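S.,

Sequence below, as promised.
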Amino acid sequence: MPDILMGVGKAGLKESGAPDLLVVLLPYPCVSSFLFTDNYFKAGSVIYSEGIAKGRDRFRAFVINSGNANCGTGEEGITHAKMMAERVAQNLDLKPEEVLVFSTGIIGRPLPIDRVLGAIDQACSIMEPLDLERASEVISTTDRFPKFDFLKRGSLEVFGFAKGAGMIAPSMATMLAFVFTNADLDYEILRDIHKRVADRTFNSITVDGCESTNDSFGLISLGEVKVDPKEVEEGVLEVSETLAKRIVEDGEGATKIIKVTVKRATLEMKAREIARTIANSLLVKTAVYGRDPNWGRIAAAVGSTEFPIDPFSMKIYVGKHLLYDGRPHPRAEKLAKRYLEEEKEIEITVDLGEGRNSWTYYSSDLGYEYIKLNAEYHT
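The prediction came back faster than expected:
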């Protein structure tokens, strides 16, 4: 792994008292692409970083605080984000515009900026090699486990870490994700790869259909080896998909991952929208939680979008079990129920039988624990 450094600090933002601030230092100005939430109610850190990222394509460092979203705090939130960037720059002898800022946590509480700046000083005083698992733990909020991945394929390396568990729906999810590659790519190629990968991964997951105010996804090129961009994209896609699935797996109260694939649609947009609708359906999610192969709920979701379908040529599978193809197959339901009971990752496939386009969404089931967690977690 290239020489990326990290430092950890405590600002007292988490009730647990666990470390809540992370500084990541890149070895030199690296070509970087960042995508941010489409939510119009953006956090101060998003407003600040998005503004900086529009004018630059190389960065040296970023700082992340967890436990406070720095959102809904007015102009002060943007000022605090700027102060965080400036303090990192001061500590590490960088230019402030070389530093991006990210936040995650509870909305509507002003950052205790003096404590945060003190935690930045602490983090910058002891910089160690990047530990993906540790980095994910520091930026986590309601996460049950860290999210990280590393891929090596020949000379190519792709690796990253993320956080996210609830308020998950594009664009992107209540998530922060940072993926690195040692490949040498110019900004335009990196940006194109970034957008395509984001669409297929972090923009194609949902836990509860609720879009966050702080979502950010960074892709950083360390510029060390020459690799075919197609190979780079495959590696970035694989790592990002792993991180995205881990976020879904950690969906608050989730017991199952649901992979929804809509295939043989006339338009990619149609496949994507129908897959998204199934993945977001509360009736489908609760049926999976109850281990109930209720294909009628899936069919209803398929037919509820603006895109017309032919219900007599459509096929619905749960796992490999065909439950509907213009008529129901009751005998397959027992086998599908057993599949739902035994497997951790549940595949729902809808074959529209009309074209060549497909799309996959990842979701999670929805049970009692989600209600409990979110009723008790103040936002």
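Residues 167-173 have pLDDT under 50 and may be disordered.

Coffee later?
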